[in-house]
Model the fold of this input.
Amino acid sequence: MTAKISLRSVTRQFVVRPARGSKASAKEPTTLTALHSLSLDVRDGEFLTLVGPSGSGKTTLLDLLAGLSTPTSGEVLVDGRPVTGPGKDRAVVFQQYALFPWRTASANVSIGLEGKGPDGRKLNRRERAAKASEYLKLVGLAGFEDRFPHELSGGMKQRVAIARSLAYEPDVLLMDEPFAALDAQTREQLQDELLRIWRATGKTIVFITHGIDEAVYLGQRVAVLSARPGRLKEIVDVDIPDRDGEDDIRSHPAFVEQRHKVWTLLHDEVRLAQDAGHRKILPDGTAPDEAPAAAGTHESTLERSAA
Done:
């Protein structure tokens, strides 16, 4: 299949300034390498899940795909064209619902429809409401168009957020741990809903998660990132027979086997991240595994991460 998304040797660095009053000199900033020389292709219509330890650059990668930031080096391409900023061909679903409390579910979904469409035409209010109803029905919220966010459960709010992202019909859906704040039962229900929506729409989905079960359950492939700086460690093809059947595939031997494979790949990276202190950046702007910008190099950073 054709690559919808291509990352070519992408590196992303950040300069972290020391906190006010810290001993570190402001003239000696720390360069944090979030991603290093990462290359990855996502096929058109594919559901790719992405896992990695805390600090491995998962959200940074999603920001690059969304056009919210730019790589320090390398290229990010969608449909063969460089990503230079946000675009209506890509939609982002964040962990927080980010709904406007004074707008109904329908009005929240309609936000992306208020400007001109790809054909240059602007929808009127009735057309926007009809489109919003169509996508609220798709996510299982028919009849809730006039409800305000405070009248909805957490899972329903996230459904509204997904409907809002789908309503202006992007090609690519970028999802940053969208179910992390939900209870286990609601999370599993929304996983099934998302798979149904993906099959119905044929969208290309990149889904970040910390849950190995979730990654294997949802993804056609699971991309495993290393500890910081994030590199592509391996891609696991998820091949589970009878995936569309009525039985719970989580108990299928193939699911258990592939879950264990992802866990094995991730286990050492999580330990490395914890040992290196990746979970926190010190108040002076430094991190235990990074060198000052004047002396640091990609090579020395990689050596420290592997130590």
In short: Confidence is low (pLDDT under 50) at residues 281-287, 290-307.
